[in-house]
TrEMBL record:
Record-given protein name: Endonuclease V
Cofactor: Mg(2+)
Cell location: Cytoplasm
UniProt-listed Enzyme Commission number(s): 3.1.21.7
Keyword set includes Nuclease: yes
Listed Basic and acidic residues bias regions: 207-222
UniProt catalytic activity: Endonucleolytic cleavage at apurinic or apyrimidinic sites to products with a 5'-phosphate
Function, in words: DNA repair enzyme involved in the repair of deaminated bases. Selectively cleaves double-stranded DNA at the second phosphodiester bond 3' to a deoxyinosine leaving behind the intact lesion on the nicked DNA.
Magnesium in keyword set: yes
Originating organism: Nonomuraea helvata
UniProt enzyme class: hydrolase
Region (Disordered): 207-236
Pfam families: Endonuclease_5
Annotated Mg(2+) binding sites: 42, 108
């Protein structure tokens, strides 16, 4: 997929803060509510080296569609509020290697719930133009009340008088996660998606799988086979069944067409044979007719000769032979 290069990567804190302040005005807080492909993004650090991982899932089945990992180096010092700049260059490269374009980015981090209101989810959303949301494991800014104990319970996160996210309980009696808008998505939709994408565990499946892929990229590459970046798109069961039925129908149609063609050829051959037999019968009939004429002619000749010779054989005295 293609990503807009809206700025060079900063080398100083002032440059990084200036980029955040400039791009914050491009964030949109409304957008689509349904998504087909959902990408989870995460990074695993090994000292100053890192592995960025992107895992694209089918939103309906949560089946893996594509996986990509990229090895890189931390591109910026560790500064609170500017942490995204350490990861962005490698994450952007991983996204650019995707062969499919996701409809939603789910980031392990924050969006509006950020000191300058422009966290990793906002930044990636603006760069890609895609809807994006952030899911944090711990609170970053603002205050909130602990949500109820049931799955789906939430409470608002308030920072400097504004609601910037929600503390969301994705599993009963399990610690909440911290959801915030990134780009082109409402807070309600971001909350619904975070909950729907976490059917069994605390964290949504896209970032859980991205975390595992970033930690163990070799395992996934080995399962995918040599020379590939990760597992490719596997159609859902319904899609595979539909394709199988379509293939069977096409095969049956071809078989029927072939049988009709064979039957037509046989009929044509039989017709030709019948025509040949008819011609042979006609020829035989003509020959029989000629033979009959010849026989009649021979009989007539014999009768004529006999009638001519008969008076000569009668005695002149007695009138008898």
């Amino acid at each position: 997929m293609r990503i807009k290069q809206l700025h060079p990567w900063p080398t100083t804190i002032a440059e990084a803060e200036s980029i955040q302040d400039r791009l914050r005005g491009d964030v949109e807080l409304t957008g689509p509510t349904a998504f087909s492909l959902v990408a989870g993004l995460d990074v695993h650090y090994r000292s100053d080296s890192l592995t960025a991982a992107v895992v694209v899932l089918d939103a309906g089945t949560l089946a893996t569609v594509e996986e990509v990992t990229v090895e890189g180096e931390a591109a910026f010092p560790y500064v609170p509020g500017l942490f995204a700049f350490r990861e962005l260059p490698t994450l952007v490269e991983a996204l650019e290697r995707l062969t499919v374009t996701p409809d939603l980015l789910v980031c392990d981090g924050y969006g509006l719930a950020h000191p300058r209101g422009f966290g990793l989810a906002c930044h990636l959303g603006v760069l890609t133009g895609l809807p994006a949301l952030g899911v944090g494991k711990t609170p970053f800014v603002g205050t909130y009340d602990m949500p109820g104990a049931e799955r789906g319970d939430w409470s608002p996160i308030v920072h400097e008088g504004a609601v910037v996210g929600r503390a969301l309980r994705t599993q009963r009696d399990v610690k909440p996660v911290y959801v915030s808008q990134g780009h082109r998505i409402s807070l309600d939709t971001a909350t619904d998606q975070a909950l729907r994408l976490a059917p069994r565990y605390r964290l949504p499946d896209p970032i859980r799988r991205a975390d595992h892929l970033a930690r163990h990229p070799a395992d996934h590459t080995r399962r995918a086979g040599p020379g590939r970046r990760g597992r490719r798109y596997q159609p859902s069961v319904l899609t595979r069944v539909a394709k199988s039925l379509s293939s069977l129908a096409s095969t049956d149609s071809k078989r029927f067409s072939n049988r009709v063609s064979i039957s037509s050829n046989l009929a044509s051959t039989d017709s030709k044979r019948l025509s040949t037999d008819s011609k042979r019968l006609s020829t035989a009939s003509k020959r029989l007719s000629i033979r009959s004429v010849r026989r009649c002619s021979s009989a007539f000749r014999c009768s004529f000769v006999a009638s001519v010779a008969r008076p000569a054989m009668i005695s002149p005295n007695t009138g008898s032979v």
